[in-house]
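thought: user wants a sequence for this fold. calling inverse folding tool.
action: design(structure=
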């Protein structure tokens, strides 16, 4: 907090000078800790907008700076995320809502506290939001309750007591059940509220949920994410949103707590489609990488060296460097469950079918993930798909 006040004084004294110092302070702070900096009131805001814009423009030459205007009452907000999740938000002290919490919808609901939902909800709580939670398996709520979350016994009660409710559920069936089923979120929805579904589902499912939520007068946004367990923990997700633009704007400060970027893609279904295309590519990449690792080993090469070679060339990808070393050791600590990757391939193939787009590579990859599931690997990380190839090879030899 001292840091943000130092920034504010500099704003007001000399807006041309501040950005370099701001970047330096934040870099130091970011490397020391991993917490959010919020509330940076501009102390003499006569030239607040001008100095802030100037500061943001100058600061962007030092770091990845993301100006976002969110709401008439705030001057502006920007996120600074170098290696760690750090956010700085600037507000006018003349503004009646100089408390950043006033920019955030009153109470936030979170439904579905699995690998992704738990850290996402946790980041909201750590950023100072009032959060209510529900999960089918209640014990998964306990760590969040101990951080200050309020437990509600059903999705309906979460939705009824919150302004904006997020859902992060396994698949289309669970997303529909939690939103539209008995004691589902829709039963607690009414005008003025919003439902943001971050689960990876197909467009038809998303439209069904949207229709049900909107029939209550509430707003709907689909917001599936790219990024896995670690980005969820670090507030570095990429949101692929579509639906009600006004809910997108209301939810933006929350998306910025949980993520590093956000895309607004228009009508409901477009966010789901974008997510499925991304995961279709990812699933095929992982299947192909698995084949390469095993082939290299079979011809007497060291697969660890293959990982190293790939990391230095044009086909390098963080996924190969992150997963490769443990795959070589036949270890698959779960970040993205294999069953969800197969679900995404299945849904992506359905999307392709709906527009008669050939996707032979993804279809082959899907078969491999199905084999992996039948080998009992559903809850392993999706990189365990390599085991399906080992099984096939063993069958043949
Ligand atoms: N893990 C990852 O890397 C990523 C996952 N995703 C997507 O995000 C979503 C969540 O993924 P993730 O957190 O990994 O999955 P998990 O399997 O860890 O969590 C799934 C969540 O859905 C709940 N759930 C499952 N079935 C039902 C049901 N019938 N009724 C009510 N709740 C149910 C689970 O409750 P319970 O605890 O009771 O089982 C749990 O809260 C999925 O759609 C996935 O594809 C997107 C990006 C990355
Ligand atoms: O849906 C899962 C995506 C995982 C990732 O983007 O790393």
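)
observation: tool returned 397 residues.
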């Amino acid at each position: 907090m001292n840091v943000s006040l130092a920034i504010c004084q500099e704003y007001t004294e000399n807006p041309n000078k501040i950005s370099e110092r701001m970047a330096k302070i934040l870099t130091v702070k970011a490397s020391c800790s991993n917490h959010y900096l919020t509330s940076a009131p501009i102390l003499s805001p006569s030239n607040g907008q001008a100095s802030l814009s100037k500061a943001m423009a100058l600061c962007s030459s030092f770091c990845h700076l993301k100006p976002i205007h969110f709401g008439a009452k705030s001057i502006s907000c920007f996120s600074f995320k170098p290696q760690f999740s750090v956010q700085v938000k600037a507000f006018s002290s003349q503004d009646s809502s100089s408390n950043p919490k006033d920019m955030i919808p009153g109470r936030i609901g979170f439904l579905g506290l699995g690998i992704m939902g738990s850290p996402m909800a946790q980041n909201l709580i750590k950023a100072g939001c009032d959060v209510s939670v529900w999960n089918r398996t209640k014990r998964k709520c306990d760590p969040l309750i101990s951080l200050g979350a309020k437990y509600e016994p059903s999705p309906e009660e979460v939705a009824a007591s919150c302004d904006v409710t997020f859902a992060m559920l396994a698949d289309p069936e669970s997303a529909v059940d939690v939103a539209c089923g008995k004691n589902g979120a829709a039963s607690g929805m009414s005008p003025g509220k919003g439902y943001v579904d971050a689960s990876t589902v197909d467009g038809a499912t998303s439209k069904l949920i949207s229709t049900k939520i909107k029939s209550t007068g509430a707003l709907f946004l689909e917001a599936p994410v790219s990024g896995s367990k670690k980005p969820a923990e670090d507030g570095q997700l990429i949101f692929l949103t579509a639906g009600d633009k006004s809910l997108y704007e209301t939810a933006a400060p929350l998306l910025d707590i949980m993520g590093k970027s956000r895309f607004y893609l228009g009508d409901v279904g477009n966010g789901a489609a974008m997510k499925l295309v991304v995961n279709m590519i990812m699933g095929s990449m992982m299947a192909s990488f698995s084949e390469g690792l095993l082939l290299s080993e079979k011809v007497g090469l060291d697969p660890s060296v293959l990982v190293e070679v790939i990391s230095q060339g044009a086909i390098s990808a963080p996924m190969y460097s992150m997963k490769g070393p443990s795959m070589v050791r036949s270890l698959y600590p779960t970040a993205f469950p294999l069953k969800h990757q197969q679900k995404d391939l299945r849904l992506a193939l359905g999307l392709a079918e709906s527009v008669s787009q050939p996707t032979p590579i993804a279809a082959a990859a899907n078969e491999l993930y199905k084999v992996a599931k039948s080998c009992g690997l559903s809850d392993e990380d999706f990189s365990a798909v390599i085991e399906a190839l080992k099984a096939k090879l063993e069958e043949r030899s």
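thought: summarizing for user.
answer: Here is the designed sequence. Residues 104-268 form a domain with the Rossmann fold fold (CATH 3.40.50.720).
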